[in-house]
Amino acid sequence: MTSSSPTPATGAGYRHELYPYSGGDEFLAGAVSFIQEALEGDEAVVVAVPQEKASLLRAEIRENSTVRYVDTSRVAHHPGRLIAAWQEWVKEHASEGRPVRGIGESPWDEVRSSAEASELRYHEWLLNRAFAQGPAWWLLCPFDARDEAALTEMARCHPEIRRDGRTVLSEGYEARAPYAFVPLTDPCDPYDEFVYTSGDLPALREKIAACAEQHGLTGRRLRELHLAATEVATNSIRHGGGQGVLRTWGEERRLVCEFRDAGYLEDPLAGRTMPSARQVGGRGLWLVHQLCDLVEIRSTPDEGTTVRLHTGLPE
Fold this sequence. Notes:
By secondary structure, the protein is of the alpha/beta class. It has helices spanning about 25-40, 50-60, 80-95, 115-130, 150-155, 200-215, 220-240, 285-290, and strands at about 15-20, 45-50, 65-70, 100-105, 135-145, 160-165, 165-170, 190-195, 245-250, 255-260, 295-300, 305-310. It folds into two domains: about 15-170, P-loop containing nucleotide triphosphate hydrolases (Rossmann fold), CATH 3.40.50; about 190-310, Heat Shock Protein 90. The strands form two sheets. It has a seven-stranded mixed sheet, with helices on both faces. It has a five-stranded antiparallel sheet with strand order 8-9-10-12-11, with helices on both faces. The chain is elongated, with a radius of gyration of 21 Å. The relative contact order is 0.14.
């Protein structure tokens, strides 16, 4: 039986626990034990893991009114969409009156780029902030322990860690965001640069279309990129000193559009949580995360804001 650790510093009852494992058998043993503990305590369980892992668990514990396996294909490779997905999954189970547990593992074996890996780790840390004032629930994050360096980084994102069947406080956890301001990689040469200001949005879209054509990006995906780019550039003009700098290039089978301006985005969760029906403003970055395959945001009062939009290129 897993022992309870002291209440973590993440807020009103939210527990975020890292579970290092080695191989499928150890994954299965830890995850099944976690679910069984929940069932014994009359708790609901949400399982959000890659399909291969879900199949292993389904063979041991079938889906029912208490245990729900969710389809993560829509959000698994989109770190900016994951917090909103968890908010929705937890809300659905919490409405039934039971305490909620979750098992969440990103498809680390299928990560498509170094930028995606970095944003997935940052998402893990942001979960602590997103649920600090939310409903009490417990999230277990299995992680393949074969990569010791990566495991160390993951420990920085989780207040608790499960070892030898016990839950203990994670000594490596960092309350301050360890990935918030990791420097972005340099743009890939060659890249195009365009300074834009009020009235330049049509020209900006033309610049993006020209780069997209060189890399074979057309149709619906280009229209979605145009919409996202217009939203980001408009924010630059309104809140970033009246102008910005666009850079475009191809990298790791993706078209990247980077926007730099002098503004400061204080809330690291901006765009990652679903806007409420009564909310005024603040929907732009949410839309950007829905339209692009990956969104990277770095913002400081001294250096301003950089937003990178990644769109996958056709094979």
